[in-house]
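Researcher: I've got a protein sequence and the SMILES for pyridoxal-5'-phosphate. Could you write out the 3D structure of the bound complex as structure tokens? I'd like something to compare against our soaking experiments later this week.
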Amino acid sequence: MHYYGTSSTNKLGHLTIGGVDTVELGKKYGTPLYVYDVALIRERSKGFKQAFERLGVPSQVAYASKAFSSIAMIQLIDEEGLSLDVVSGGELYTAIKAGFDAERIHFHGNNKSRDEILMALDYGIGCFVVDNFYELNLLSQICEEQDKKANILIRVTPGIEAHTHDYILTGQEDSKFGFDLHNGQAETALKQTIQKDRLTVLGLHCHIGSQIFETTGFIKAAEKMIQKLGEWNKLYDFTSQVLNLGGGFGIRYTKDDTPIEPSAYVEDIISEVKTLMAKHSLEMPEIWIEPGRSLVGDAGTTLYTVGSTKIVPDIRTYLAVDGGMSDNIRPALYDARYEAVVANRPEANLHETVSIAGKCCESGDMLIWDLPISETTAGDVLAVFCTGAYGYSMANNYNRITRPAVVFVENGETTLVIKRESFDDLIRHDLPLYTHE
Ligand SMILES: *Cc1c(COP(=O)(O)O)cnc(C)c1O
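Model: Sure. Here is the predicted complex with pyridoxal-5'-phosphate in place.
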């Protein structure tokens, strides 16, 4: 099996993470339980950040907090000296409550509300990543009213879409995000902004996709953007202080995934960007990136307790666990694939192939299809790997299932960072039609 980060086994033959016995974690905190390997998050953060430092390129590595946001998580990111992306008032509020420096917060989203913009201006965030003309006008209008100024990045769609090993050149960009670079929308946005003295354009932003294993897509996107920056420098005397190339760096979910190291992405991309900037006689801007999944994805493991089994003769065996699409909707939402082991004996010989079902009332509530596994019975703890990104953050209360607890483990220590929801939490906002005894 593949052990991520600090994962290993102990004398009892149990799976450990951060030096902590996962079976004990299950007993103490209950299941389902999200377990984060803090050392691995630190390692990934440093991987990106130190690569820029080694190259002597000014940068901001902003954690895309939508991947997993909580007070403790934001504080960990703060300890590592990263910046932060938020995409909603709620993510922004979490960051501020965590004590995160507003200057290093970047606000994304294709439909920021007036209230969200007011809130962000009030906190004094570092920059708005402006997505469309509506927002451009709204932001400038609110800045007038409030007598405030704002830094912005113009989000562009460069006509590149990248997923895993493929990147596609899309001439006519069909996306809900950003200003199109080819049809002149991005240029119009720039011209409009130059006239607004309350808005300062720091530069351009793009985000070309997710779970990307190669640098080609990033480089193609950079090429398109730098080409335009060259033109705009001549036409409008505009200099981009920042080039933000987004996130989307891939991770290993299963043995079929072959990611490269954070430093390898950075080195490859920077070397090309330097060449391209020089070619257009432009000064090297600050480079910003926005990893989400690649900082927390493989650092997260979900522990479940195995319950019922259903054998469909000659077809398949379903093994049901005490969670499912309520704590991890990715398999149901986009066929995400995972690997798992029995945490109380991860090294036992593989015995059969089963499919891991959740406990929600949906046939589509499956976590893993066709998982080779050791002999497994009710009460065993199943550890599903690589659930750290878009797992808890997409968790929901379908079937009125309570959201799991989340713990951080590091150097043999466990910290509870999100409490398990209670039934009372579930009905907290419910208002009765009448009271009863
Ligand atoms: C989702 C998102 C990211 C992070 O993507 P990952 O695949 O998690 O790295 C970064 N930037 C923007 C604008 C995003 O929407």
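Model: The CA atoms of residues 42 and 80 lie 7 Å apart. Residues 64, 66-67, 85, 108, 207, 210, 246-249, 290-294, 389 surround pyridoxal-5'-phosphate (CB under 6 Å).
Researcher: Great, I'll pass this along to the crystallography team.
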